[in-house]
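Researcher: We plan to redesign the surface later, but first we want a full-length starting point. Tokens attached.
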């Protein structure tokens, strides 16, 4: 899963659009070239993006916002996914849930660690800190470009943040 990154202005804009009842955005042709359109219901891609419910142009191509939303995207982007991005993919969630199941009530946080002396410059491992202070747990080394791509290095994630 390649997680798209959004800046604070884009996240705040997405929150404001959600408050107005809009739920999806796309980049499409407008009178001013290309722009970002917002929709109440999930639009369909025909010759252009279309929905029976209200839509509005939120910016034209001259405004540098939502640049991760591309003209050629085949699916609209959910504003909810911008405000509350999924950090782990389904396989990563299943694996971590199974591993921590016997002691999930003791997990304080999970962190993606990076060590430059490991196999390469993109090698990481997961670290679990327990709240009772007795033991910690290190996972095997993995390639950062292949697994846990949605997690930031050295950020301490609660189980709730990871959707566990």
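Model: Full-length starting sequence:
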């Amino acid at each position: 899963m390649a997680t798209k990154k959004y800046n604070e202005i884009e996240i705040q804009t997405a929150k404001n659009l959600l408050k107005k009842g809009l739920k999806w955005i796309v980049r499409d042709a407008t009178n001013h070239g290309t722009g970002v359109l917002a929709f109440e219901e999930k639009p369909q891609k025909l010759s252009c993006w279309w929905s029976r419910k209200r839509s509005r142009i939120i910016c034209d191509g001259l405004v540098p916002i939502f640049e991760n939303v591309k003209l050629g995207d085949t699916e609209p982007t959910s504003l909810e996914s911008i405000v509350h991005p999924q950090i782990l993919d389904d396989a990563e969630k299943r694996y971590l849930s199974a591993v921590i199941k016997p002691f999930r009530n003791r997990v304080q946080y999970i962190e993606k660690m990076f060590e430059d002396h490991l196999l390469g410059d993109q090698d990481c491992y997961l670290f679990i800190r327990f709240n009772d202070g007795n033991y910690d747990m290190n996972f095997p080394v993995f390639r950062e470009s292949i697994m846990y791509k949605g997690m930031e290095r050295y950020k301490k994630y609660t189980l709730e943040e990871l959707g566990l």
